[in-house]
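I am still getting used to backbone structure tokens and would like to learn alongside you. To get us started, please write out a protein record for me. Start from the sequence, derive the backbone structure tokens from it, and show both lines together. Once you have written the record down, we can walk along the chain together:
***
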Amino acid sequence: MSILANISGKQVVKAFKKAGWQEVGQVGSHLVMTKPKIRVNLSIPQHKELSVGTLRALIRYAGLSVNEFLKLL
């Protein structure tokens, strides 16, 4: 089993908030987050469990490593 398995959208949002990301709004079931001086917007699905590939992509777009993200959880 992967280290990133069984992580919900709510947990991901809390971790990114600790890293300085802010909620901007919601489009359907996806929460949109931004960070000052960074051009990327994160679109986080609010599902009970995110797929590992989606989660890894969000972590990469946020400019974090997997270990840095896990410390924020």
About this structure: The longest helix spans residues 9-18. The domain at 9-72 is CATH 3.30.920.30 (Metal Transport, Frataxin; Chain A).
